[in-house]
Amino acid sequence: MNHPKTPYAISGTAMDIAVPKSYRRQIIAAGSATLAVLVMVIAAWYWMPRGLQVEAAEVRTAVVAQGIFLNDMVVRANAIPLNSVILDAVESGRVEDVFVRDGTVVNKGTPLFRLSNPQRQIELLARQSDQATQISNISNLRAALEVSKTDHERRLSDLQFNVQQEEKKYARNKKLAQQGFISTAALEDSEDMLTQQHHALDQEQARTGEEMEIKRAGITQMEQANARLASGLMLLNANIDALTVRAPTTGRLTDFHLQVGEAVAPNQHIGRIDDPNRFKLSAAVDEYYLNRVTVGRQGKAQLNEQNFSVEVSRVYPQIDKGQFTIEMIFNADQPVQLNPGQSLDTQITLGDPKPALILPTASFVSDSGGAWVFVLGVNGKNAERRNIKIGRRSNSQIEIVEGLKAGDKVIVSSYAGFGQAVRLQLN
C-alpha cells in the first residue's frame, strides 16, 4: 500500500507550550519548618529549668497573714535551788574525818569534815610562847615601876622634910637677925639653903613625873602589843577550829565528795548547801532577745497541766554559744512536786499583743537572718528571692514590716541547701 507523500517532515514543535516555574511548595515547606522550630524553641523555653532545681516535697511553705502578734517567747527552764551556799576550804590540810555524805540534809553548825594541819599547831605553840613572854615582860615593867615609884616617894619625902627644916631655920634666923643676934650674912646663908632645898624638891618632882610617864607609856605599848598577840592567837585558834568544817546554814549538801586522806588546799571548792524546799527557774535564751528580756518581765511555767506565775529576777548578759541565761522566781506558790534539774516549759511575756502581718517562726530565719525569703510564684512551681524587713519575733511568730503582703506564699523551711541561688525551680 502506497502512502501519499508529504512535501515536508512532520515536527512536534508547534505543539509545546512554555509553563512558568512555581515556588509555592518550597515556601509552604520552609514556613512549616520555621513554625515547627519556633514551637520547639517555645516549648524548650517553657520547659527549660529556671533556677536551682529543688524537690517540692522537701520544702515547707507558709502564707503571710494579717493577724495578732503575740509578743512572748517560750523557753525550756530548769528548776534550781532558790538559795545556795558555796563551800570553799578556808584552811589547807589532810582530811582526817568525813562526818556526812553527799545529798544529806544538814542543820546549821553540823560538822561536815575535819582536817589536820601540823603547821598550824606549831604556829599556835609559838604564839602562845610569845604571849607568855610578853605577859612576863609587862609584869616585870609594872614591878619596876612600883619600885621606882616607891624610891621617888621616899626621896620626895626626904626633900620635903629638908625644906620644912630649912623653912623653920630661916624663920628663926630672920627673927634673930631682926633682934641683932646674928649677922646679915648668916641670914643670907640660911635663905640660900632654903632656896636650894626648894630647887632640889622641884627637880625631884619633875623628874619623877617624867620617869613615871615614860614607864607608863612603855607599859601601855607592851599591853597593846600583847593585845595584838592575843588577837592573833584568837585568830589562829579560830583557824584551828576551822579545821573542823561545819555547815554554815541548813539545807541539802550537794556536790560533796571528800575522802579521808585527801589533801585540801585553801579556796578549794568542797561543795554547796542548797535550799531543799524553795526553787527558782534558770533558762538559756537566744541572744536576739537580750534587749527585750528585762528584770520584772512576767510569765507562766507549766507543769502537769498547771500554770504557775513567774517573774524574771536576774539576767546574765554574757553570751555563750549564741545564748544568755536568765533566772525566774515564782510569784506565789511553786509546784509541790519539784526537784532540782526538773524541766518546765515557761512562757515569758515581752509586750502587749498587737495586729501585724505575720509568718510562723521557722528555720529560714536563722539561715537568712530575717533579711530575705523565697516567695513562690503564682503557678507554685518556682520561687524568687526577695528582700524583707522583719520586726518583733517570738517562738511561734515573726512580724513582717516590709517586702511581703498578705497572701504571699513563702518557703519557711531551711535555706541551707540553696547556696547563693536567687531562683528556685520546684519539681
Explain this structure.
The chain is α+β, with helices and mostly antiparallel strands and 427 residues long. 35% of the residues lie in helices and 32% in strands. It contains four helices and 24 strands. The protein has helices at 24-47, 118-179, 184-241, 364-368, and strands spanning 52-54, 61-63, 65-69, 72-81, 84-88, 93-98, 105-106, 111-116, 244-246, 251-254, 263-264, 269-274, 279-286, 298-303, 306-320, 323-330, 343-349, 354-360, 372-376, 382-387, 389-393, 397-402, 409-411, 423-426. The protein has a six-stranded mixed sheet, with no helix packed on it. A six-stranded antiparallel beta barrel has the order 4-13-16-15-14-17. Strands 3-18-22-21 form a four-stranded antiparallel sheet, with no helix packed on it. The model is unreliable at 1-10 and 44-49 (pLDDT under 50).
Shape label: elongated
User: Unreliable segments (pLDDT under 50, ≥5 consecutive)?
Assistant: 1-10, 44-49
Task: Please state how the strands of the largest beta sheet are arranged side by side.
Answer: 1-24-20-19-23-2
Mean pLDDT: 82
Strand-helix topology:
Elements (H helix, E strand, L loop, with lengths): L23 H24 L4 E3 L6 E3 L1 E5 L2 E10 L2 E5 L4 E6 L6 E2 L4 E6 L1 H62 L4 H58 L2 E3 L4 E4 L8 E2 L4 E6 L4 E8 L11 E6 L2 E15 L2 E8 L12 E7 L4 E7 L3 H5 L3 E5 L5 E6 L1 E5 L3 E6 L6 E3 L11 E4 L1
Parallel strand pairs: 1-24
Antiparallel strand pairs: 2-23, 3-18, 4-13, 4-17, 5-12, 6-8, 6-11, 7-10, 8-9, 10-12, 13-16, 14-15, 14-17, 15-16, 18-22, 19-20, 19-23, 20-24, 21-22
